[in-house]
Amino acid sequence: MLQKPELFYQSALTAVPGVGDILIRQLISYCGSASEVFRSPLSKLMKTPGIGEVTARAILHPEVLPQAEQTQQRCEKLGVHQLFYTDNRYPARLKSLYDSPAMLYLQGRADLNAARTVGIVGTRQATDYGRRVTEEIIDALRPYQPLIISGLAYGIDIAAHRASLAHGLPTVAVMASGIDIVYPYVHQKTAQEMQVAGGLLTENRPGVKPDARLFPARNRIIAGLSDVVVVVEAAAKGGALITAEYANNYHRDVFAVPGHLNQTFSQGCNKLIRENKAQIYTRPEDLIEALNWDQTTVSKKMVEKPALEFTEEESQILALFRQQPVWQIDELGWRTQMPLGKLASLLLNLEFKGIVRPLPGKKFQVS
C-alpha cells in the first residue's frame, strides 16, 4: 500500500458503506490508527466488535482508497479543511457527544472552539417580528463576541447569519449537503461573505446533495456546537424543534421566544416553554445571565491563592477556567484528557476550596 498522510486514510474510512461514526471510532481503537485499519487483514477486521464479514470486505474493497483520493483533491481545490475527530481543530463541544461526526468539512476561517457559541434557529417562514427579535439578540451579544451558528435556511436562519455579518460577529452555517452545494442557492452570496471570519460546515463529503434525511443530522451538529440554542419562531413540528430536542439531550441551554397565541409559527416556541423544554426568552440578558457571561472570567480566589495550593492537575483545570468561566464536565474531560471519574474528584476538591461550584446540566462555574 502506498504511504499517504493519515488524513487520507481517515477520509477513506468515512467513505466505506456501512461504516458509521461509531464504528469508525471502534476500528481506530482496535487497530490503532486509520492507516492500520487498511493494512489489517480480513481476519483481524472481523474480530473488531461490530464488524462482520460484509463490512470488513467493504473496508478492503479496492474502490475505497481511490474515492478518498478524489475527495481530498476536491477539498484542496475548494480550500476546504477536513477535520477528523482526532484533529486539534475539531470542535471540543462535539467530541464528547456519542453521535458526533467522525469527519467535518470546513470552508472558511471559523474557530469552532470559540469561547462562546450561540445557535439561533427557527421557521423558514419568518415574520417581521421573528426577524426583528433575531436582530436584537445578535446586536445585544456583540460585546461578548460569540460564534453564531445556524443552518443557512430561509427565514430565521438566514436572518441570523446576515445580522451577524452586519454586527461584525463570526457566523457558521451547518449544511445538510456537501460543502460545494450551497442550499438554497439564493444564499450563495451570504455564504461567501461568511467565510471571511466564519464559514460553512458539514459532515457530508463534497458532491452530496441535500436530502430530507440529512437535515435532522445537520440539526444535531448545530445543537452540539452551541452553548445555548435559541428558537425564535417555530411551528408545532419542524427542524427547529428537532434542534431543541438535541440540545436538551446534550445538556445545552435552550431558550424559546414566546409569540402570539394564534400565530402558527409561535406554536412550537410556546410548546417548548409549556413543556419545560426551553426557558422563556424575554430579553438578551436572559441568555447572558444563564451562561454567566456577565461574570468575571477569573475568580478572585484563583488569583489570591498561592499556586502551590493547587496540584498540577488542578492547575491544568484552572487554566481552562481562566479562558471562560463555565465548562461542561464532558468538555473539560476532552480538553484535559482526564478520565471523567478522576476529573469529577478534582472538581470536587476545587469546590471544597471554594474555587468552582456546580451548575445544572453537568456544568461548573468559577465561584
Automatic annotation (TrEMBL):
Residues 11-30, 43-62 form the Helix-hairpin-helix DNA-binding motif class domain. Pfam families: DNA_processg_A (PF02481), WHD_DprA (PF17782). Belongs to the DprA/Smf family. This is DNA-processing protein DprA. It comes from Larkinella bovis.
